[in-house]
What does this fold into?
Amino acid sequence: MVALEEAVGTAREMVRFAPPRRGARSVLERHARTLPHVDFAVRNAGVLARHALRYSRSRLVAPDGLIAAVRELAQAVWALAGAYDDPRGAEEATNHARIAAARAREAFEQEPDLALTEIIGQVRSTAVDVMRAAEVVAGAVQTVDELPTEEMLAAPPAAPPD
It folds into this structure.
């Protein structure tokens, strides 16, 4: 994370002092403001991977709902990556993340296994981090850290555009 923060600092200096690069300010700031949330998402994804590896080594079969939740979370990450170029894509990232969290909860409700609880918790935590980053990318007026996690996850996904 330190190297990324240093790179952002260098880029800010370049944008400030190089006239041809001044147009990149908004894109750079969009990246910079999301760094804490992306860092949390990366950390949570690492913990998710460790829990999933431990679970798979136990030779237990993960419920289909959990597999769908992880796939949806992956779609959220891809949509967030695209939103940096086009902030209108942030809503898609938020929707995928919200669906991932809901599917993870449903998987737990159908099969309340203690070993799955760790994985489900990490899917939900990572989804929240992606949602917070997406809101920053979209230019949310309200500070995203002010919204309680459960309130964020409880909101219905936005309807897809026609």
